[in-house]
Each structure stands twice: as structure tokens, then as C-alpha cells.
Amino acid sequence: MKTAKDYYVKHGILYAKLQNNDGEYIRTSIKYDKDDILENQNGKFVKTGIKDNYTKDTFNVYYNLRKVDDLSPHGFKSLGNGYARDSFNVVYNGKLVPDVMASNFKSLGDGYAKDSFAVFYKGRKLDVLNVSGFQVVGNGKAKDGMGYFINGRRV
Known about the structure:
The protein has strands at residues 4-10, 13-19, 25-31, 38-41, 44-47, 54-56, 61-63, 66-67, 77-80, 83-85, 90-92, 95-96, 106-109, 112-114, 119-121, 124-126, 135-138, 141-143, 148-150, 153-154. It is mainly β.
């Protein structure tokens, strides 16, 4: 299935014009919640229950219905708070997060995430002294044992 063309969301319903494998354009609609992932199956979107505006079909992963070149649908997982990964890469809001170990990357909430070696805020690497001791306090605040961060900035 190819990408969506001419789509919009109105009153919780996604309306899209899709191109199927035969090259035909098909109009479709589905009740859509921001926590749903919609999988394009031969011209119809099917809810699969994953969140953060990510969707996938057999060959691609999409963020807000735009193809994410850096992710494969095989091994794809939405991690929450805008983060997603496949077996090799991590993205935040559909954009590649560089220098990440995807296999143990996890979202911590409030825009923060980490792997074994680094901490990230909204996809940007932070200068953290103690990765293993890094904790999200809440409301954009976090600490690393040496001090605090507010919205990704050390204070």
C-alpha cells in the first residue's frame, strides 16, 4: 500500500484518499483517536492500538501519515511520548534520534528518554553525569544525581 494522499481529521474521524497496490485511489474514513495507530490494509485503515500518531503498513511506518524513512515496520514499536523504534533506529515525532542504542531505548515520560549510555529530551541528547540514576520527577522536571533539569535544560 502506498502513502495517503489528501487526508484530514475532522470531529475524530480520519478521511483519506489512498492508493492501493493496483494504483487505484480509494477514499476511506475511520473513527480516529489520537492514541490509535491506523494500519493501511488495501485501502482501509485498521486500528491496531499503538499510540503517538504512528501508523504502519506492510512496508513503511508513518508519523502523522508522512512516511518515516528511518523506521521499518518489522520490529516497530511505539514507546510513548513521541518516541518510536524499530530494531536499529529511534525517532522522536518522526525524526531520527542519532547515536542511540535502539535495543534498550525507553521513554521515561515528559519528553525524556534514555538508553544505556545517554539521556534525551524530545530527541536531543542531554549532558547527563549519571545515566543509570537519571529520574523524571514530573511536569518537565528530572534529576541526574548532580542536579535538576527543567524541560531538558539543567538548572
